[in-house]
Amino acid sequence: MSGIIKKAIFPAAGLGTRFLPATKASPKEMLPIVDKPMIQYAVEEAIACNINEFVIITGKHKRTIEDHFDYAFELEDKLKKSGKKKLLKEINRLNRFKIAYIRQGYALGLGHAILCAKPFVKEEPFAVILSDDIIDTEDTLLKDMIRLYKDLEGPVLALQQVPMSEIHRYGVIDGEKEWDGVYRIKNLIEKPKIKDAPSDLAIIGRYILTPDIFDILEKSKPGKGSEIQLTDAIKKLLHKRPVYGYLFKGKRYDAGDKLGYLKATVALALKNPELSEQFRSYMLEVSEGLKNV
Asked: Residues 51-101: pLDDT tens digits?
């Protein structure tokens, strides 16, 4: 099996209930962080890893995602005539990449969303990127995972240590340390209670998977939450091949949560060359104001 990862899947069919009413008619993945929607950060992360074929799994009310990555002739013409070349270049930058859209008819979970991409992926290894897990632009999580996949020739899951008070929100691994930052996974539990958690190593939204996961997903029955859980399928995959976890020690923002979304917005605004100086000054003003409250 080739060690080159050319394709990435972006599950984007969820209802985004944590952000209602903002997500009643607009996809969560299109919520802006500074000047880009969440899903664009995810696509750009994949592009930085030389991935150039993408499939976005969509659902109802997700048409704006397709529109975002499509040509906008009237807007482009207006920008061209007004001499706004920088903006024109920015909105056209992603048009040269292949993006396919597959609609998930029923909200049957992450495992089902990935199964929908089987005709696109075929017999190749692939990346899965959850766009509401924002990785700091200076970190190289996905690149490191792809490098590890090439060395080990097995699926790789991104891990992060999380407080035990939050462990019930994640899939959690029981693993054996191979070397610093790399674990061979022995078992996985989806959203365990604290007393049932085998570790504090949680699976976060980056995966390198092999196509044999599809056969398992096709035979999977709904698990926790009446959904087809990817964690359950990977647990079965452990009986067929080694699966590894890569411990991420960089900065990640859970932008699927309101507080995490605000933290991501602040962090990326401070890195934006057009905003950073003025925004930093404003944050200092706010900080001083809080001292007097």
From this structure: 989 999 998 777 888 888 888 888 888 888 888 888 888 877 777 778 899
Read off the amino acid at residue 149: Y
Q: What's the structural domain count of the chain?
A: 1
Instruction: Name the token pair of 241.
Output: 């091949």
* C-alpha span between 89 and 19 (Å, rounded): 31
pLDDT score recorded for residue 222? 76
CATH number at residue 243: 3.90.550.10
Full domain range(s) for residue 20: 7-291
pTM of the model: 0.91
**Cβ neighbours for 23, distance < 8 A, ≥ 6 positions apart:** 15, 16, 17, 31
Among all chains, which residue has been given the structure tokens 């929607």?
Answer: 37
Residue 129 forms part of a structural domain: yes
Report d(CA 279, CA 283) in Å as an integer.
6
The DSSP code for 241 is: S
For residue 1, tell me if it sits in a domain: no
Three-class DSSP category at 99? strand
The structure tokens 């009986």 sit at 239
Number of H helices, E strands in the chain: 11, 13
Sole residue written with tokens 């997500």:
23
Nearest of 151, 156, 144 to residue 183 by alpha carbon: 156
Which tokens go with 274?
């057009």
Spell out the residues 6+ positions from residue 28 whose beta carbon is closer than 8 angstroms to its own: 14, 16, 18, 19, 38, 132, 256
Pick the closest to residue 28 from 229, 260, 206 (CA basis).
260
Whether 2 is covered by a domain: the verdict is no
